[in-house]
Amino acid sequence: MVKLRAPAYAERETAVLDYLRKHGVATTDEVCDLVRASPATVRRDFTAMSQKGLIIRSRGCIQLAASAQQSPVSQSLTISNAKDEEKSKIAKLASSFVKEGDCIFVGAGKTCNLFSNYIKDIGHLTVVTTNITVVLELASCPNISLVLLGGDVRVGPNFIETISLDSEIEKGLGSLYFDKVFITVDGIELDCGYTIKNRMQIPLYSRLINASRNFYVFADSYKFNHHAFVPVFDLDQIDNIITTEKTPSVYLDYFKSHGKNLYLA
To answer: What was the pLDDT predicted at 58?
Structure first.
């Protein structure tokens, strides 16, 4: 007889949240059956989920917290912690670089989502993006022309994006030229440079850096001294970095000494 593997915490959390979205509430016994875990394990999960603001516990039952009921689009513009506050400051500063008539590319990630909210009233813009959340945010703006690059879709806690472009669209990128490109990365280290989680984005990023007058990276302080799976740019390749004063001084000193344009929100 094959013994079923008990789900890991991340899988259990996803299963519980999906169950709550369908049923509203759940008891400890119901969750034990759902995730094939002991009451002690489930109670520990409840504590962790409660501390993350995902659930509310009451008299042997749990229900979704308000923040967990939000869609990825609404969560993408919510400022809920210090990290989000940094992202918002970076996004606001970056919006000051956008001028009426610009053709810009906007990448994925929460900072880019917040950035889209700040550029609504600049005037006529052409915005090209892989970020479906950005499209939904800007779709009602008559002054903004939107182009969504199609491909495989990935949904995260605060974004919806296309991650691998259709071959014809990827070829077409070679004929586009942007006044400004704004992207985020997943990690930055002195040795590894800029890194991202998804290797399927490398062709897009490689084309963008060669098809723009000004290329900007959004980098909150939490991105530094961390690296993701895929190296995408050397530190010397990016001329414009928008970050905050919380960024470790060794990186601020590096950018300044290497002649990079460092913008502190």
So the answer is: 82
Class of the domain covering 9-69: mainly alpha
Please give the sequence-ordered ranges of beta strands (E in DSSP) within the chain, or none if there are none: 25-27, 55-58, 61-64, 103-106, 125-129, 144-148, 151-155, 160-165, 178-184, 187-189, 193-196, 212-218, 230-233, 240-243, 261-264
Closest CA to 105 of 128, 126, 124: 128
Amino acid at residue number 143:
N
Give mean pLDDT, residues 35-51: 90
Confidence of residue 23 (pLDDT cuts 50, 70, 90): confident
Kindly give, in sequence order, each residue whose CB lies less than 8 Å from that of residue 239, ignoring residues fewer than 6 positions away: 214, 215, 260, 261
pTM listed for this prediction: 0.71
Taking the domain 72-264, which CATH number applies? 3.40.50.1360
- Confirm whether 9-69 and 72-264 share one CATH topology: no
pLDDT tens digit sequence for 185-198: 999 999 999 999 88
Give 136's pLDDT tier (boundaries 50, 70, 90): confident
Give the contacts of 77 (CB within 8 A, at least 6 positions apart).
113, 114, 117, 137
Extents of the domains making up the chain: 9-69, 72-264
